[in-house]
Amino acid sequence: VTHPPALIDRLAAFALGLPDADPDGTLASHLADGCTRCATDLRELRETAALLALGIQPLDPPAGLRERVVDRVSGESYAFVLSSTGEWREDGSISIKQLYDPPDDGGTSLLSLRTGSSLEEAYRPGHLGYVVLRGELEGEGLRLGTGDFVPAAGKMPGRQLSVLTDTILLAVAGSDQAAPLDSPRAVRSSRAAWNPVEPGALALPLAGSAEEGVEVSLVKMEPGATLARHRHDWVEELCLVSGDLRCQGVELGPEDYHRAGPATTHEVATTVGGCTMVYMIRKRISAER
Amino acid sequence: VSAALDQLDESEREIVMLASRAGLSLGEIGNRLGLGIEEVHQLLRRGLDRVRGSLEHTLRREPM
Fold this sequence. Notes:
The structure holds two protein chains of two kinds. In chain A, the strands form five sheets. In chain A, strands 1-17-14-20-11-10-9 form a seven-stranded antiparallel beta sheet, with no helix packed on it. Chain A has helices at 5-15, 26-32, 36-55, 65-73; strands spanning 78-81, 88-91, 94-100, 108-113, 127-139, 142-144, 149-151, 162-173, 195-198, 201-209, 214-221, 226-227, 230-232, 235-243, 245-247, 250-252, 257-260, 264-266, 269-270, 275-282. By secondary structure, chain A is of the alpha+beta class. The mean pLDDT of chain A is 83. By secondary structure, chain B is an all-alpha fold. Chain B contains four helices and no strands. The two termini of chain B are 14 Å apart.
């Protein structure tokens, strides 16, 4: 294996997950070819990057820096809605922040429910299910908290769950005619079996399937873990539940949302202190199905 | 860690800080400092290697 110096130099920016670290993918394919020397270098550089991030006082970022970074990377391919951006609007007894509103299909939104309200009040046509980002719900023999999933429709229409403390839900919707996702049960993340997906990363499927066009999972990353650079032909969405994630050069925290359109490439995503996120894939289902 | 950063040349330190904490792309760092992408790559790589070297030296002297 040859090691052009330019490629070796690229490893540092790649380890930090900078969006333009490896624009032509040469380094990623070199690593995929199994170069053990570069893989070792990369691991050491990531450790150094994590130590740096843990050990130094965060630079006081200039006001609005994150929003400016978001403006730079946002476009048709990549979108971000940070917890500090987007618009909450009152809708009946709840507040809604739309994160994704594709034509002819359901989208993704955040719902804010106040203590004492009911999950029933959050239901809108097309809703498939909810992930609890913050708060607590109880009813139907269930007690749900952060990271838990509940399908929008149960055996009986509407969900009789009371909101115990102010709650933020991530609502996943399909088109108005969409059938409920194949997930008859609520999923309690603390009691479920997680699958390893990459070193230091575990996934827990919550609902949906490739056939249904929407898949919703939780992904948990250990401190210092990375998600490999990858290209996808479908829409990928993620929303942080807790922790930190650096994705496309943007630092994300709890309730920050990111989406990448079809036929885009995600650069390496890194976490310093670890994180848990909701991860969604949307694939167009052909009209005849 | 801050002692390790102090060991760096000014340009290396600035690039390491901008790349690791400020959320800027290589292109933006280059524009800000008047450097080409390849130079930013080189300085960033050298900076991180030197930070690692100093940290290893310190960790060896003061086992945790």
